[in-house]
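Final report, section 2: Outcomes. Of the targets proposed, Prephenate dehydrogenase is the one most frequently requested by collaborating groups, and we therefore present its record in full.
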Amino acid sequence: MRVAVLGLGLIGGSVALALAEAGHDVLGFDTDPATRASAAAHFPVTADPSELQDTDLAVVAAPYRHLAAVAAETLRGYPGLVTDVSSVKAEPARLFAQHRFVGGHPMAGKETAGFASAEPGLFQDRKWVLCLEADTELAEWTTLAGLWTSIGAHVVPATAADHDRAAARISHLEHLVAAALVRVADEPLARTLAAGSFRDGTRVAASPTALFTGMVAGNRAELMAALEDLGTELDSARQDLDAYTDRPNPISEWFDGARASRAAWPPEPDATQRIPLTKAALVELGAAGGWVEAVESEVALARRPRVKSTP
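The predicted structure is given below as C-alpha cells.
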C-alpha cells in the first residue's frame, strides 16, 4: 500500500517507520525542514501537498490545532482513504466529513516528542482505537484494521463518542491531575523528597504543552464530566478522613476498592477466537473491551478480557 504520513513527530514518525519496515511504500510529509531531513534517511519525504494525491491512504498525525487546515487545505480533493491518530475523535470526524475518513487513536506514546524519539516498535501489543460508526464503510475499516494489526497493534472497535468518554477518564484527566500534583508539590523540600510515587504520578506532566492543551480542549465536555466524577471521589475521601477518629473503616474501604480495581488492570486476555467481520460482531467486541489482533478474509482473530469466576 502507498501511504502518506502527514506529520513526522513521535507518533507520525513511528507510524511511518513501522509501515516502511513492513514493506509499504511510505511518503512522509512535514512542514519542518529539519524533520524532513532526519526522516529522509528512512523513507521519501515532501513538503508539497500535491505529491500526496497519488497515495492510497493518508495518515494524519499533525497536531490537533492543525487538523482543520489539513482537512480543508493540505488534503483538499484527496481521493484516498484518510485516518488520523488524534487523542480526540468526535471533532476530527466532523472536520474530515468530506473525506473517506475512519478515525483512529493509538494508545501509545512517550514524554518526549519529535522524529528523533520515533521508533517502529512503538505500537507493538498496544491498543489502537479504530472508530466504527453507523455510516463507516466496513471494507475501509477492515483495511485499516489489517494494516495496524500488521505492525503489532491490537485494534479496538469503538464509536467516536465512546472513545472520547473513555479517553477523558484514562488519559486526559490524568494529564490534568499530573500537572496539578506538580503544582501542589512546587517547593524545595517537597521536590527533594519526591521519589517513586511522585515520579509515576506526574510522568505525563512533562508532555509538550501544545499537545496537552489541544487534547484537553478538544475533549472539553467529556473532560468536565470526568472532573466532576473525580471531585465526587475526592470529596468522599475528604469526608472519610474528616471522620477518621470516630470511623476509621470508611477510608480503608475507599482505598481497598481502588486497590482491587487497580490490581485487576490490565485485564487478562481470554483465548483467541474467530469472529465474523460484521459491524454487529465488531461493535459487540469493542463494547466488551475486546480487540482484534489479526484480520483474515472474512473473520477477525480477536480476544476479550477474561471474566474471572466468582467463588
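The longest strand covers residues 2-6.
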